[in-house]
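STRUCTURE:
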């Protein structure tokens, strides 16, 4: 049997750089990067019954309920998804119920590690509240890293603005919701002995090195 790849979950506050790190780790380990959004879009594109339900929630902008999120992930794995080959989950599980169900879904391919990227709230507020994006192409800037000409996008010449949901108050609310939902998940994985906290302060490469060191230190892929 071929050596199986790593099976990881990345946790981190909104703005902690989780999506970026998940993408880099999936390249490093050659495993699939599964974000909830990707899995949802795939289910919708395939037009499965659960995909149609997801579509309904996405259309109305409502949060997809736990039970449906789990079914989508379950079907993704059941349909020859990357259980054996390994994966990195990003944005899932989001609630304790999802975390508990995920253990059932994975059964004899359990998670190896849950990496919690820790960034102080102050730093997140600075990162997100300082963020500015191009309304046209989505290119991302920061009050400390502005476009060359005023607030005109370097890439496409579009207007660079602050998104409505990037204000300090909106970000603080998002962080509160995140904490409320995530503290029980962190306890859950801590009790399973799978949780590792990684310092998420610094540039992306530094954080990436810390994550890889933790994974390689506890799980050596390819070791016979
Ligand atoms: Zn632009």
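SEQUENCE:
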């Amino acid at each position: 049997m071929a050596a199986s790849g790593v099976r990881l979950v990345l946790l981190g506050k909104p703005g902690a750089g989780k999506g970026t790190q998940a993408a880099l780790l999936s390249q490093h380990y050659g495993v699939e990067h599964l974000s909830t959004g990707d899995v949802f879009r795939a289910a919708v594109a395939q037009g499965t019954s659960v995909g149609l339900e997801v579509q309904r929630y996405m259309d109305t902008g409502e949060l997809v309920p736990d039970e449906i999120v789990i079914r989508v992930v379950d079907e993704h794995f059941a349909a020859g998804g990357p259980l054996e080959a390994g994966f990195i989950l990003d944005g899932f599980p989001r609630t304790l119920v999802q975390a508990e169900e995920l253990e059932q879904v994975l059964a004899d391919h359990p998670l190896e590690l849950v990496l919690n990227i820790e960034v102080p709230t102050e730093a997140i507020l600075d990162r997100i509240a300082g963020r500015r994006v191009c309304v046209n192409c989505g290119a991302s800037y920061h009050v400390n890293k502005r476009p060359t000409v005023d607030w005109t996008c370097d890439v496409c010449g579009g207007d660079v603005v602050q998104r409505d949901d990037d204000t300090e108050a909106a970000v603080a609310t998002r962080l509160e919701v995140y904490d409320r939902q995530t503290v029980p998940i962190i306890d859950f994985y801590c009790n399973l002995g799978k949780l590792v906290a990684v310092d998420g302060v610094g540039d992306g490469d530094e954080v990436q090195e810390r994550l890889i060191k933790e994974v390689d230190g506890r799980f050596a892929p390819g070791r016979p």
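REMARK: The first helix runs from residue 18 to 29.
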